[in-house]
Amino acid sequence: SGHFTYDPGFTSTASCESDITYIDGDAGVLLYRGYPIDELAEQGDFLETCYLLLKGDLPSGMQKADFVERVTRHTMVHEQMSRFFTGFRRDAHPMAIMVAVVGALSAFYHDSTDIHDLHHRQVAQIRMIAKMPTLAAMAYKYSIGQPFVYPRNDLDYAANFLHMCFAVPCEEYKVNPVLARAMDRIFILHADHEQNASTSTVRLAGSSGANPFACIAAGIACLWGPAHGGANEAALNMLQEIGSVDRIPEFIGRAKDKNDPFRLMGFGHRVYKNYDPRAKLMQQTCHEVLAEVGAKDDPLLDVAMELERIALHDEYFIEKKLYPNVDFYSGITLKALGFPTTMFTVLFALARTVGWIAQWEEMIEDPKQKIGRPRQLYDGKTKREYSPIASR
Length: 392
Ligand code: CMC
Description:
The chain is an all-alpha fold. 54% of the residues lie in helices and 3% in strands. The protein has 17 helices and 3 strands. A 3-stranded antiparallel beta sheet has the order 1-2-3. Strand 2 and strand 3 form a beta hairpin. Helix 2 packs parallel to helix 17 (344-365), helix 6 (118-143) runs parallel beside helix 7 (157-166) and helix 8 packs antiparallel against helix 13. The longest helix has 26 residues, at 118-143. It is globular. The two termini are 31 Å apart. InterPro entries: Citrate_synth-like_lrg_a-sub, Citrate_synth-like_sm_a-sub, Citrate_synthase, Citrate_synthase_AS, Citrate_synthase_bac-typ, Citrate_synthase_sf, Citrate_synthase_typ-I. This is Citrate synthase. Keywords: Transferase, Tricarboxylic acid cycle. It holds the Pfam family Citrate_synt. Belongs to the citrate synthase family.
Protein backbone atom coordinates (compact mmCIF):
# COMPACT_ATOMS: atom_id res chain seq x y z
CA SER A 1 0.00 0.00 0.00
CA GLY A 2 2.60 2.53 -1.10
CA HIS A 3 0.17 5.03 -2.58
CA PHE A 4 0.13 7.30 0.47
CA THR A 5 2.50 10.25 0.73
CA TYR A 6 4.96 9.71 3.54
CA ASP A 7 5.34 12.96 5.52
CA PRO A 8 6.44 12.40 9.12
CA GLY A 9 6.20 15.65 11.07
CA PHE A 10 3.90 17.06 8.35
CA THR A 11 6.63 19.27 6.93
CA SER A 12 4.95 19.47 3.53
CA THR A 13 1.28 18.70 4.13
CA ALA A 14 -1.43 21.35 4.51
CA SER A 15 -4.19 19.92 6.71
CA CYS A 16 -6.71 22.70 6.15
CA GLU A 17 -7.50 26.01 4.52
CA SER A 18 -7.46 28.88 6.99
CA ASP A 19 -7.89 32.65 6.85
CA ILE A 20 -6.83 33.36 10.43
CA THR A 21 -3.05 33.64 10.67
CA TYR A 22 -0.42 34.18 8.00
CA ILE A 23 3.28 33.45 8.46
CA ASP A 24 6.03 34.17 5.96
CA GLY A 25 8.92 32.38 7.61
CA ASP A 26 11.57 33.59 5.16
CA ALA A 27 10.62 37.23 5.56
CA GLY A 28 9.88 37.01 9.30
CA VAL A 29 6.26 38.15 8.92
CA LEU A 30 3.32 37.25 11.17
CA LEU A 31 -0.19 38.57 10.50
CA TYR A 32 -3.41 37.93 12.44
CA ARG A 33 -6.30 38.32 9.96
CA GLY A 34 -3.99 40.52 7.86
CA TYR A 35 -2.74 42.79 10.66
CA PRO A 36 1.02 42.77 11.47
CA ILE A 37 1.72 41.37 14.92
CA ASP A 38 3.81 44.40 15.94
CA GLU A 39 0.97 46.87 15.21
CA LEU A 40 -1.48 44.79 17.23
CA ALA A 41 0.98 44.39 20.10
CA GLU A 42 2.00 48.05 20.18
CA GLN A 43 -1.36 49.71 19.58
CA GLY A 44 -4.04 47.18 20.50
CA ASP A 45 -4.89 45.03 23.48
CA PHE A 46 -5.47 41.34 24.03
CA LEU A 47 -9.27 41.26 24.11
CA GLU A 48 -9.37 43.25 20.88
CA THR A 49 -7.00 40.65 19.41
CA CYS A 50 -9.33 37.90 20.65
CA TYR A 51 -12.26 39.56 18.90
CA LEU A 52 -10.19 39.90 15.73
CA LEU A 53 -9.11 36.25 15.72
CA LEU A 54 -12.62 34.98 16.44
CA LYS A 55 -14.65 37.28 14.20
CA GLY A 56 -12.22 38.21 11.42
CA ASP A 57 -12.19 42.00 11.82
CA LEU A 58 -11.22 44.51 14.49
CA PRO A 59 -14.23 45.55 16.59
CA SER A 60 -15.86 48.97 16.55
CA GLY A 61 -15.97 50.76 19.91
CA MET A 62 -19.43 49.37 20.63
CA GLN A 63 -18.56 45.83 19.55
CA LYS A 64 -15.45 45.95 21.71
CA ALA A 65 -17.36 47.15 24.78
CA ASP A 66 -19.97 44.44 24.29
CA PHE A 67 -17.32 41.73 23.87
CA VAL A 68 -15.36 42.86 26.94
CA GLU A 69 -18.59 42.94 28.93
CA ARG A 70 -19.45 39.38 27.92
CA VAL A 71 -15.98 38.04 28.74
CA THR A 72 -16.00 39.85 32.07
CA ARG A 73 -19.36 38.33 33.02
CA HIS A 74 -17.86 34.83 32.72
CA THR A 75 -14.64 35.19 34.74
CA MET A 76 -15.86 33.19 37.74
CA VAL A 77 -15.69 29.40 37.67
CA HIS A 78 -18.25 27.18 39.36
CA GLU A 79 -17.41 27.03 43.06
CA GLN A 80 -17.38 23.24 42.93
CA MET A 81 -14.37 23.43 40.64
CA SER A 82 -12.19 24.50 43.54
CA ARG A 83 -12.56 20.96 44.90
CA PHE A 84 -11.04 19.67 41.72
CA PHE A 85 -7.88 21.59 42.54
CA THR A 86 -7.69 20.45 46.12
CA GLY A 87 -7.85 16.83 44.94
CA PHE A 88 -4.35 17.21 43.51
CA ARG A 89 -1.12 16.62 45.37
CA ARG A 90 0.07 19.99 46.59
CA ASP A 91 3.25 19.80 44.49
CA ALA A 92 1.39 18.92 41.27
CA HIS A 93 2.74 20.66 38.16
CA PRO A 94 0.29 23.45 37.19
CA MET A 95 0.17 22.12 33.62
CA ALA A 96 -1.02 18.74 34.92
CA ILE A 97 -3.78 20.57 36.77
CA MET A 98 -4.68 22.64 33.69
CA VAL A 99 -5.10 19.59 31.44
CA ALA A 100 -7.55 18.18 33.98
CA VAL A 101 -9.57 21.23 34.97
CA VAL A 102 -10.07 22.53 31.44
CA GLY A 103 -11.27 19.10 30.35
CA ALA A 104 -13.56 19.13 33.38
CA LEU A 105 -15.29 22.32 32.20
CA SER A 106 -17.36 20.10 29.91
CA ALA A 107 -18.81 18.46 33.02
CA PHE A 108 -19.87 21.86 34.40
CA TYR A 109 -21.20 23.77 31.41
CA HIS A 110 -23.59 21.42 29.64
CA ASP A 111 -25.28 24.34 27.90
CA SER A 112 -22.23 24.98 25.73
CA THR A 113 -21.11 21.55 24.55
CA ASP A 114 -23.41 21.02 21.55
CA ILE A 115 -21.08 21.68 18.64
CA HIS A 116 -23.94 21.89 16.12
CA ASP A 117 -25.52 24.83 17.95
CA LEU A 118 -23.93 28.19 17.10
CA HIS A 119 -25.12 29.74 20.36
CA HIS A 120 -23.55 26.91 22.37
CA ARG A 121 -20.28 27.36 20.52
CA GLN A 122 -20.24 31.12 21.05
CA VAL A 123 -20.88 30.77 24.76
CA ALA A 124 -18.14 28.14 24.98
CA GLN A 125 -15.68 30.53 23.29
CA ILE A 126 -16.44 33.34 25.70
CA ARG A 127 -16.34 31.02 28.68
CA MET A 128 -12.97 29.63 27.73
CA ILE A 129 -11.35 33.05 27.19
CA ALA A 130 -12.90 34.33 30.41
CA LYS A 131 -12.11 31.36 32.64
CA MET A 132 -8.58 30.47 31.55
CA PRO A 133 -6.96 33.26 33.63
CA THR A 134 -9.03 32.23 36.65
CA LEU A 135 -8.07 28.56 36.29
CA ALA A 136 -4.40 29.38 35.60
CA ALA A 137 -4.22 31.62 38.67
CA MET A 138 -5.92 28.94 40.79
CA ALA A 139 -3.38 26.34 39.60
CA TYR A 140 -0.60 28.74 40.62
CA LYS A 141 -2.09 29.63 44.00
CA TYR A 142 -2.65 25.97 44.79
CA SER A 143 0.95 25.09 43.88
CA ILE A 144 2.31 27.64 46.38
CA GLY A 145 -0.21 26.88 49.12
CA GLN A 146 -2.02 30.22 49.04
CA PRO A 147 -5.78 30.74 49.03
CA PHE A 148 -7.54 31.25 45.69
CA VAL A 149 -8.23 34.87 44.78
CA TYR A 150 -11.54 35.61 43.05
CA PRO A 151 -11.55 37.59 39.81
CA ARG A 152 -12.04 41.35 39.97
CA ASN A 153 -14.21 42.53 37.15
CA ASP A 154 -13.28 46.20 37.58
CA LEU A 155 -9.79 45.35 36.32
CA ASP A 156 -8.94 44.67 32.71
CA TYR A 157 -8.01 41.20 31.49
CA ALA A 158 -4.26 41.12 32.17
CA ALA A 159 -4.45 43.22 35.34
CA ASN A 160 -7.13 40.93 36.77
CA PHE A 161 -4.93 37.94 36.01
CA LEU A 162 -1.92 39.45 37.83
CA HIS A 163 -4.24 40.30 40.71
CA MET A 164 -5.52 36.71 40.99
CA CYS A 165 -1.93 35.43 40.90
CA PHE A 166 -0.20 37.85 43.24
CA ALA A 167 -2.76 39.33 45.63
CA VAL A 168 -2.92 37.86 49.15
CA PRO A 169 -5.70 38.42 51.71
CA CYS A 170 -3.38 39.86 54.34
CA GLU A 171 -2.13 42.91 52.48
CA GLU A 172 -3.03 45.52 49.89
CA TYR A 173 -2.05 44.59 46.33
CA LYS A 174 -2.06 47.15 43.56
CA VAL A 175 -1.46 45.99 40.01
CA ASN A 176 1.46 47.82 38.39
CA PRO A 177 0.09 49.15 35.06
CA VAL A 178 3.45 48.77 33.28
CA LEU A 179 3.56 45.10 34.23
CA ALA A 180 -0.09 44.58 33.30
CA ARG A 181 0.59 46.12 29.89
CA ALA A 182 3.59 43.79 29.44
CA MET A 183 1.46 40.78 30.42
CA ASP A 184 -1.20 41.83 27.93
CA ARG A 185 1.40 42.14 25.18
CA ILE A 186 2.79 38.68 25.96
CA PHE A 187 -0.74 37.32 25.57
CA ILE A 188 -1.10 39.05 22.16
CA LEU A 189 2.23 37.61 20.95
CA HIS A 190 1.13 34.07 21.82
CA ALA A 191 -2.51 34.29 20.72
CA ASP A 192 -2.23 32.27 17.51
CA HIS A 193 0.40 30.73 15.26
CA GLU A 194 -1.52 28.80 12.56
CA GLN A 195 -1.13 25.01 12.37
CA ASN A 196 1.47 24.36 15.10
CA ALA A 197 1.41 21.05 16.99
CA SER A 198 -1.09 22.04 19.69
CA THR A 199 -3.46 23.78 17.26
CA SER A 200 -3.35 20.78 14.95
CA THR A 201 -4.13 18.65 18.00
CA VAL A 202 -7.18 20.77 18.81
CA ARG A 203 -8.41 20.48 15.22
CA LEU A 204 -7.82 16.73 15.11
CA ALA A 205 -9.60 16.21 18.42
CA GLY A 206 -12.44 18.46 17.24
CA SER A 207 -12.78 16.67 13.91
CA SER A 208 -14.43 13.75 15.68
CA GLY A 209 -17.13 16.03 17.07
CA ALA A 210 -15.69 16.19 20.58
CA ASN A 211 -16.88 19.11 22.73
CA PRO A 212 -14.79 22.31 22.71
CA PHE A 213 -13.54 22.06 26.31
CA ALA A 214 -12.23 18.53 25.68
CA CYS A 215 -10.49 19.75 22.50
CA ILE A 216 -8.75 22.62 24.31
CA ALA A 217 -7.62 20.19 27.03
CA ALA A 218 -6.00 18.11 24.26
CA GLY A 219 -4.23 21.22 22.98
CA ILE A 220 -2.92 22.02 26.46
CA ALA A 221 -1.52 18.48 26.77
CA CYS A 222 0.34 18.86 23.48
CA LEU A 223 1.67 22.32 24.34
CA TRP A 224 3.34 20.97 27.46
CA GLY A 225 6.28 19.41 25.59
CA PRO A 226 9.72 21.12 25.63
CA ALA A 227 9.93 21.27 21.82
CA HIS A 228 6.75 23.41 21.84
CA GLY A 229 5.40 25.47 24.74
CA GLY A 230 8.02 24.24 27.19
CA ALA A 231 10.84 25.98 25.29
CA ASN A 232 10.69 29.25 27.27
CA GLU A 233 11.35 27.31 30.46
CA ALA A 234 14.23 25.49 28.75
CA ALA A 235 15.64 28.81 27.47
CA LEU A 236 15.65 30.36 30.93
CA ASN A 237 17.28 27.26 32.43
CA MET A 238 19.96 27.45 29.76
CA LEU A 239 20.69 31.13 30.45
CA GLN A 240 20.96 30.30 34.15
CA GLU A 241 23.31 27.42 33.38
CA ILE A 242 25.54 29.66 31.23
CA GLY A 243 25.46 32.16 34.08
CA SER A 244 27.99 34.72 32.83
CA VAL A 245 29.04 36.31 29.57
CA ASP A 246 32.53 34.76 29.57
CA ARG A 247 31.07 31.25 29.37
CA ILE A 248 29.08 31.95 26.17
CA PRO A 249 31.76 30.76 23.68
CA GLU A 250 31.84 27.38 25.40
CA PHE A 251 28.08 26.94 24.91
CA ILE A 252 28.14 28.25 21.35
CA GLY A 253 30.84 25.66 20.66
CA ARG A 254 28.68 22.93 22.16
CA ALA A 255 25.63 23.98 20.11
CA LYS A 256 27.72 23.68 16.92
CA ASP A 257 29.26 20.32 17.87
CA LYS A 258 27.54 17.49 15.95
CA ASN A 259 28.49 15.01 18.70
CA ASP A 260 26.90 17.09 21.45
CA PRO A 261 23.08 16.97 21.70
CA PHE A 262 23.04 20.47 23.27
CA ARG A 263 21.04 23.09 21.36
CA LEU A 264 20.69 26.80 21.98
CA MET A 265 17.21 26.93 23.49
CA GLY A 266 15.07 29.74 22.13
CA PHE A 267 16.91 29.56 18.80
CA GLY A 268 15.64 28.15 15.54
CA HIS A 269 12.14 27.49 14.27
CA ARG A 270 10.46 25.09 11.86
CA VAL A 271 8.87 27.93 9.91
CA TYR A 272 10.88 31.11 10.63
CA LYS A 273 14.16 31.16 8.75
CA ASN A 274 14.55 34.80 9.71
CA TYR A 275 14.17 36.81 12.92
CA ASP A 276 10.90 35.74 14.61
CA PRO A 277 8.91 39.02 14.63
CA ARG A 278 7.58 38.13 18.08
CA ALA A 279 11.13 37.85 19.44
CA LYS A 280 11.79 41.55 18.71
CA LEU A 281 8.68 42.63 20.60
CA MET A 282 9.48 40.24 23.42
CA GLN A 283 12.99 41.68 23.71
CA GLN A 284 11.54 45.19 23.97
CA THR A 285 8.96 44.06 26.55
CA CYS A 286 11.73 42.36 28.49
CA HIS A 287 13.68 45.64 28.76
CA GLU A 288 10.55 47.52 29.91
CA VAL A 289 9.72 44.96 32.60
CA LEU A 290 13.27 44.70 33.93
CA ALA A 291 13.50 48.51 34.14
CA GLU A 292 10.18 48.67 35.99
CA VAL A 293 11.00 46.02 38.59
CA GLY A 294 14.46 47.52 39.12
CA ALA A 295 16.32 44.54 37.69
CA LYS A 296 17.92 46.37 34.76
CA ASP A 297 21.21 44.77 35.68
CA ASP A 298 19.90 41.22 35.68
CA PRO A 299 22.98 39.24 34.60
CA LEU A 300 20.70 36.87 32.68
CA LEU A 301 19.74 39.72 30.35
CA ASP A 302 23.41 40.47 29.69
CA VAL A 303 23.97 36.80 28.90
CA ALA A 304 20.94 36.72 26.60
CA MET A 305 21.90 39.85 24.66
CA GLU A 306 25.51 38.81 24.24
CA LEU A 307 24.50 35.28 23.25
CA GLU A 308 22.16 36.68 20.64
CA ARG A 309 24.84 39.06 19.32
CA ILE A 310 27.47 36.33 18.99
CA ALA A 311 25.07 33.78 17.45
CA LEU A 312 23.77 36.26 14.87
CA HIS A 313 27.37 36.78 13.68
CA ASP A 314 28.37 33.12 13.78
CA GLU A 315 28.67 31.25 10.47
CA TYR A 316 26.96 28.10 11.77
CA PHE A 317 23.83 29.98 12.86
CA ILE A 318 23.80 32.19 9.76
CA GLU A 319 24.14 29.24 7.40
CA LYS A 320 21.38 27.23 9.14
CA LYS A 321 19.20 30.34 9.41
CA LEU A 322 18.86 30.03 13.18
CA TYR A 323 17.46 33.17 14.79
CA PRO A 324 16.06 33.85 18.26
CA ASN A 325 12.42 32.77 18.55
CA VAL A 326 9.66 34.12 20.81
CA ASP A 327 10.83 31.98 23.72
CA PHE A 328 14.32 33.42 23.89
CA TYR A 329 13.33 36.52 25.88
CA SER A 330 10.00 35.43 27.32
CA GLY A 331 11.55 33.37 30.14
CA ILE A 332 13.50 36.32 31.58
CA THR A 333 10.45 38.55 31.22
CA LEU A 334 8.07 36.16 32.96
CA LYS A 335 10.57 35.58 35.75
CA ALA A 336 10.79 39.35 36.27
CA LEU A 337 6.98 39.53 36.36
CA GLY A 338 7.17 37.17 39.33
CA PHE A 339 6.25 33.81 37.80
CA PRO A 340 8.10 30.58 38.60
CA THR A 341 9.21 28.54 35.57
CA THR A 342 6.49 25.93 36.14
CA MET A 343 3.92 28.60 35.21
CA PHE A 344 5.50 29.62 31.89
CA THR A 345 3.73 27.05 29.75
CA VAL A 346 0.47 27.72 31.59
CA LEU A 347 0.70 31.38 30.53
CA PHE A 348 1.31 30.26 26.96
CA ALA A 349 -1.79 28.02 27.15
CA LEU A 350 -3.86 30.89 28.55
CA ALA A 351 -2.92 33.13 25.63
CA ARG A 352 -3.16 30.44 22.93
CA THR A 353 -6.67 29.43 23.97
CA VAL A 354 -8.22 32.06 21.72
CA GLY A 355 -6.20 30.81 18.74
CA TRP A 356 -7.20 27.22 19.44
CA ILE A 357 -10.87 28.13 19.75
CA ALA A 358 -10.84 30.34 16.62
CA GLN A 359 -9.21 27.52 14.62
CA TRP A 360 -11.68 25.01 16.05
CA GLU A 361 -14.63 27.22 15.07
CA GLU A 362 -13.22 27.66 11.56
CA MET A 363 -12.97 23.89 11.21
CA ILE A 364 -16.52 23.31 12.44
CA GLU A 365 -17.85 25.83 9.91
CA ASP A 366 -15.81 24.40 7.01
CA PRO A 367 -18.00 22.04 4.96
CA LYS A 368 -14.87 20.40 3.49
CA GLN A 369 -13.54 19.24 6.84
CA LYS A 370 -14.01 15.63 7.82
CA ILE A 371 -12.63 13.51 10.60
CA GLY A 372 -8.82 13.72 10.63
CA ARG A 373 -7.61 10.26 9.83
CA PRO A 374 -3.99 9.98 8.60
CA ARG A 375 -2.91 6.81 6.84
CA GLN A 376 0.32 4.90 7.42
CA LEU A 377 2.97 2.93 5.61
CA TYR A 378 2.82 -0.46 7.31
CA ASP A 379 6.23 -2.07 7.74
CA GLY A 380 5.43 -4.78 10.30
CA LYS A 381 5.08 -8.56 10.03
CA THR A 382 3.05 -10.08 7.21
CA LYS A 383 0.24 -12.49 8.12
CA ARG A 384 1.30 -15.39 10.34
CA GLU A 385 -0.36 -18.17 12.29
CA TYR A 386 -1.33 -18.02 15.95
CA SER A 387 0.52 -20.52 18.13
CA PRO A 388 -0.82 -21.66 21.53
CA ILE A 389 1.14 -20.33 24.52
CA ALA A 390 2.48 -23.79 25.49
CA SER A 391 4.31 -24.10 22.21
CA ARG A 392 5.99 -20.63 22.26
N1 CMC B 1 20.93 25.13 18.32
C1 CMC B 1 21.86 24.53 17.55
N2 CMC B 1 21.58 23.94 16.37
C2 CMC B 1 20.29 23.94 15.95
C3 CMC B 1 19.27 24.54 16.73
C4 CMC B 1 19.62 25.14 17.94
N3 CMC B 1 18.70 25.71 18.70
N4 CMC B 1 18.08 24.40 16.08
C5 CMC B 1 18.37 23.73 14.96
N5 CMC B 1 19.70 23.45 14.87
C6 CMC B 1 20.36 22.76 13.75
C7 CMC B 1 20.10 21.27 13.80
O1 CMC B 1 21.13 20.59 14.52
C8 CMC B 1 20.07 20.89 12.33
O2 CMC B 1 21.41 20.77 11.91
P1 CMC B 1 21.81 19.71 10.74
O3 CMC B 1 21.00 20.11 9.54
O4 CMC B 1 23.27 19.90 10.58
O5 CMC B 1 21.42 18.36 11.28
C9 CMC B 1 19.47 22.12 11.66
O6 CMC B 1 19.76 23.21 12.53
C10 CMC B 1 17.96 22.01 11.43
O7 CMC B 1 17.32 21.66 12.67
P2 CMC B 1 16.04 20.69 12.78
O8 CMC B 1 15.95 20.20 14.17
O9 CMC B 1 16.09 19.70 11.66
O10 CMC B 1 14.87 21.73 12.46
P3 CMC B 1 13.35 21.60 12.95
O11 CMC B 1 12.57 22.48 12.06
O12 CMC B 1 12.93 20.17 13.04
O13 CMC B 1 13.40 22.15 14.45
C11 CMC B 1 13.18 23.49 16.41
C12 CMC B 1 12.94 23.37 14.88
C13 CMC B 1 12.50 24.73 16.93
C14 CMC B 1 12.56 22.27 17.10
C15 CMC B 1 14.71 23.55 16.66
O14 CMC B 1 15.26 24.69 16.06
C16 CMC B 1 15.05 23.53 18.17
O15 CMC B 1 15.17 22.44 18.74
N6 CMC B 1 15.24 24.74 18.81
C17 CMC B 1 15.45 24.82 20.24
C18 CMC B 1 14.13 24.65 20.99
C19 CMC B 1 13.22 25.87 20.84
O16 CMC B 1 13.65 27.00 21.00
N7 CMC B 1 11.92 25.63 20.56
C20 CMC B 1 10.93 26.71 20.47
C21 CMC B 1 10.26 26.75 19.15
S1 CMC B 1 9.25 28.23 18.96
C22 CMC B 1 7.92 28.13 20.07
C23 CMC B 1 6.97 26.97 19.95
O17 CMC B 1 6.76 26.40 18.85
O18 CMC B 1 6.38 26.60 20.98
